[in-house]
Specification:
The chain is 64% helix and 0% strand. It is mainly α. Helix 2 runs parallel beside helix 4, helix 2 packs across helix 8 and helix 4 packs antiparallel against helix 5. The N terminus is likely disordered.
């Protein structure tokens, strides 16, 4: 059985993400890719897609834990649910891509299991929930930025850039909701 992989561990291993995995995470259907983008190493791509799917399951679970906690008040609750819907769209695209490649999608854990792995019992305030989400989104930004240089297909690099833009939008909105300052320095992400 596969265990959930944190976005932090993906950051460390970010260079192993395939072009197909990042493009699907960006919410783009597999029909938009050239066949060469998918033909490189199907078993490796399925494994990579399943790692990405595990991360999307974790993101969905984290936002559900936050919503169920009763700690999120408006408008933060609506923001969390919006971002969760983005991760659900990514999940659906990943499942479709994995199945198209002949793979078996990794199942999600239960919300209770995600609550345990995310140490939800330590969440006492809205700020705690938002900081958890902020950290997950930052890990995703850095992981996905680190793989852009490995794309030979400019369209896939563009899709990866769109994914980074989406994750950065999540991070920025959460940062603002928390009342935290934007980074003072340029080139903050992906270092």
């Amino acid at each position: 059985m596969l265990h959930p992989i944190s976005r932090r561990s993906l950051l460390v291993k970010g260079t192993t993400l395939s072009a197909a995995g990042l493009a699907v995470l960006a919410g783009v259907g597999t029909d938009g890719f050239t066949r060469t983008a998918w033909a490189s190493d199907v078993p490796k791509d399925v494994d990579t897609l399943n790692v990405a799917l595990g991360l999307e399951h974790q993101g969905i679970g984290a936002y559900q834990v936050g919503a169920d906690s009763g700690l999120l008040k408006q408008p933060a609750l609506n923001v969390a649910l919006l971002f969760q819907s983005h991760h659900k769209a990514h999940r659906d695209a990943l499942i479709a891509a994995i199945q198209k490649l002949g793979g078996v999608p990794v199942p999600a854990l239960t919300t209770v299991e995600y609550a345990k792995t995310l140490n939800a019992s330590s969440l006492k305030t809205q700020e705690d929930v938002l900081k958890l989400a902020l950290g997950l989104e930052l890990g995703a930004i850095n992981a996905y930025l680190n793989v852009i240089p490995f794309f030979q297909d400019r369209d896939l690099a563009k899709l990866s850039g769109r994914l980074v833009a989406d994750e950065t939008m999540h991070w920025t909105a959460l940062q603002s909701t928390l009342g935290l300052p934007l980074p003072a320095n340029a080139l903050t992400f992906g270092a």
